[in-house]
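Researcher: Please predict.
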Amino acid sequence: YRLVLTGTPITQGGVDLFAQMRFLSDKILGYKSFYTFAKNHLVYSTRNRGQITGSANVEWLAERMSPYVYQVTKAEWLDLLEEMHEEYFCDLSPEQAAAYQGAKEDFADDLLRYANEDDDGELSNGIAIFRLFSRLQAIACGELDGRPIPHGRLDLLAAVLADIPDTHIVVWTKYLQGLDEIEAHLPAARNLRVTRIDGNVPAKIRDVRIESWKQSGGVLALTQGIGGHGLDLTAAATAIFYASSFKYSEHIQAEDRCHRNGQDRPVNYINLWADCGIEDRIRTALSRKGNVLDDLRAEIDAIQGDHIRDRIRAFVLSL
């Protein structure tokens, strides 16, 4: 017998289903190759070669899979108390606002340059767009080209923590610079012990630090990429997202570290945001369990007709 167990079966859309069903049996969907599956069930971008923009014949897939799929929700499986969600915002600093606008204008200038060339280069495969989105979020989080710039996120975090009575708090962030700032400044601002976990911390040391945090309390600061899987952080009933990932799958995995078996209190999730276009898009995508990069690429891919680069340029400048 074969069994597939997962808490997040579909993180990228219908493309995730083929490998899972083929592992169980290729008789379920009836496709022996990914090519034939893709031909019938995946929609590809007309502009960016190889980019999947959607799924097709989803009802047929669901009907074929339904006898072999069994779902148990967390609410059915565990007797957990409720989850609560709060959001707090800060403005961009003048330095951030200038860098943010400059990054958009640099990209718009590249579009004009590409307009005079036969080959769109990086623009055609989405690399330049991906770099733009990543750069805009980094600026919104206080980082410009690998160096810190003034921002209000850390002060916002300190203000939020001042109203939290919990002895154990988890803070998730996306960037190592965010961890550096939290580790350097938060103890002085709030007299809180900060325990740091990132990809440079070996697994054994990571376990020791987490156990120490469970015993002593304070803030456990982690990156979502390394800390979102396989951890039991039920010692905390408050989780703060200092800077969120583009991916819903990483976000929900991070949430579930506190709201899981062993948790006997309601869990409060607090999201910190900078008031700007890219962070608004991340909020919207996460609220509907989506991936912000996929959403933005789909919006750009939908721009068709005459003067396409001018229209993409206007879209980017509106972020």
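Model: The chain has a mean pLDDT of 86.
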